[in-house]
Request: fold
Amino acid sequence: MSSSSHAYVPLKKEIKTMGDVAKWQKSQAFKEYLAFVETLSASVLGKKITDDIQQTENCSKLVEILDVLSNWIDAIPPVDQPQRFGNKAYRTWFDKLTTNSEEILKGMLDEKDWPSIIELQGYFNDGFGNSTRIDYGTGHEMNFAAFLCCLFKLRYLTEVDYEAAVLRVFERYLTLMRKLQTVYMMEPAGSHGVWGLDDFQFLPFYWGSSQLKGGAIKPNALTDPAIAKNTSQDFMFMGCVAYINEVKTGPFAEHSNVLWGISSVPEWSKVNSGLMKMYKAEVNTLL
Reply:
């Protein structure tokens, strides 16, 4: 896909009924998106976040953008309000994002690709939550992943960026989202509660299970808080579990029942394939 040969249009919601979901699941876009997610999973097989991997200038630009968005949080502290959840200062942060996103994207893309911003901006903005509800969930995460997918289709990112897209860019995105969630007390969007994989994320579990394939750490280790914490800097999956242990109280089997069930699976390869089936069945029908 090139900016010169494609007619870009602003994003609009097309999936409104179960019939639309069925149409989406048969579409070329659905197939390409899932193939992209699976390709990134394969690219980080056995790799650690801390490994010395290739990081191109364009990947570095994306990380720098996420750093800037994180700094905005520091400049926009939560406001005093009666309700505990959904701090309204998030709306100020989000307004700053949407106001500046066009210039942010112009600053990172070549001028020839600027026509694509009218579409990219929708995925980018929606990748950081909803300002009306002050919530965030796997649908927003999917928007950010779709944004990355578009950057690969534009050839802004290429095959040499697969590993860094996960272990550098998405990892930085993940830490930014945790900061937004904790500072502004964002609500989970569409959470299944105890019967869901996680209140906010899905992809770091899927990609993270690929990282752990063939390694010394087995799935039964994920319920050990010390192991999760000590390996959180190396593996996305363990980083997610360590974060859950920080923000939730009570027995792990009660507040994270699905993850507790995953701990009984013998090998990460089975976890990885099972999570992709879950991603297809749940996330892509909740649009």
